[in-house]
Structures are given as C-alpha cells and as structure tokens.
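Q&A log
Question type: sequence-to-structure
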Amino acid sequence: GTLTDDDIENARDQGLSRPKVLIICPMKKDVFPIVENFRMLIFGDSDKPFISNYRRFKTEYGDTGFKISEKRK
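Response status: OK
Response body:
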C-alpha cells in the first residue's frame, strides 16, 4: 500500500541523539581540545550546554593530569 500522513508521522525521528560529525585525530589526546573549541563556539558561556554523554567523554578523553617528565622533553 501507500503511506498515509499518520504512517509517516509515526515513523518520524523521535528525537534520539545521533552523531552528526566524525572527528578523526592522530592521537586520542588531540580530540578533547577540538571538541572543547566546538563547544565554546556553539554554546559560548551558556550555563547548560547540551552535549550527549559529555561527562563520559570528559573522563575518557580529558586531561588526566599526567605530564611528560622534563627529562623527556
């Protein structure tokens, strides 16, 4: 059969989050500053910017506090 307007409305996107951009970086540590720059450009100083799973992203890719020894530089 044919699709009715009700069928199309029922099958429509239900607002679930879907990634829109794939950022490929040479190293895992390089992606965090890029995403932070995008966040600042898009949301500015907004109190509640919405980025899905941002806490998990920050723990996996954010600064761990480890620094390269001065001897290795």
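Response note: The mean pLDDT is 80.
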